[in-house]
Amino acid sequence: MMKKSFLLLHTAIFLAGFSGIFGKLISLNEVSLVWYRALFSFLFLFPFLKATGRFTKHTLQERLQITISGLLPGLQWVFFYGSIKYANVSVGVICFCTTGFFTALLAPFVTKARLSATELGLSLLTVAGVALVFHFDTSYRLGIILGTISSILGALYMLTNEQLIKRFDAGMINFYQMLGITLGIGLLVPFYQHLMPALHFTPTGTDLIYLVLLASCCTIAVYVMIAESLRKISAFTVNLSFNLEPVYSIILAIFLFNENRELNISFYVGLMLILLSVFLQMRLVHKTR
């Protein structure tokens, strides 16, 4: 049973790695892409939660609180996919690695926790790695800036979502947050299309297939697999294992898009610094536990 749980977990991480790949494949702009992903995920989650008996009722105030909290991950997705559109998958997921640094930096302001000098120091390795990546091609600077903003939003989301998880079922949080993203980002779509009329909103046949796969396999299926793996594996191990997601994304991007042709030695040195930071953080937490 333990082997099966680990197989489910790493399958979930591998599928999550395709999120960036689909961002590259789908021809829609980043705002439209996020809106469709959230809408389809919301529609798929409802029958799943009903069928598994996990759909629970909440007060209006609770539903509003969780739904509004979906604006953070929604904006994070917009900037993440914007980073991929204006750069490439490798750059987008590398910037995602700085989330740990911003989490350590923002935690004292959001949760009133003490600033961890050790975590901050290790996270600076990641920042140094991203700085090296930043210099590998000036044409990708906009993508890196968007990816960094996405990481800041991701850090804020994790810090605020930590409080929700203590009070509500993860599936219901996901359900209402997908609703929040659909409604919130939906308000941005008309303005975005007005500012950039050349960008099309309606997905093509291929886009529609990719969006369904993104919502079903990279969102709902990942959630289900993580929930099942948590029956045998600790949340601590699950969280650490997800540090492999950017690595999977980069490997997939190299095989699918030949992105290694666009990357030079500074990119790989930066990537090594980021992986070193992840490894040292894992060792530190294991030692502490």
Features:
14 helices, mainly alpha, single chain
Q: How would you sum up this structure, described in words?
A:
The longest helix is centred in the middle third of the chain and has 26 residues. Helix 2 packs antiparallel against helix 11, helix 7 crosses helix 8 and helix 7 packs across helix 9. The model has no long low-confidence stretch (mean pLDDT 83). 79% of the residues lie in helices and 0% in strands. With 289 residues, the chain is mainly α. It has one domain.
Short synopsis of the structure:
The chain has 289 residues and is mainly alpha-helical. The chain contains 14 helices and no strands.
Question: How many domains make up the 3D coordinates?
Answer: 1
Note poorly predicted spans: none
Helix content: over 70%
Percent of residues in beta strands? under 5%
What global shape is seen?
globular
Tell me, rounded to a whole number, the average pLDDT: 83
Q: Give the ordered list of helices and strands.
A: HHHHHHHHHHHHHH
Distance between the termini: 24 Å
Tell me the number of helical segments per DSSP (H or I, 4 or more residues long): 14
The structure class reads: mainly alpha
Radius of gyration: 19 Å
Total beta strand runs: 0
Largest sheet at a glance? none
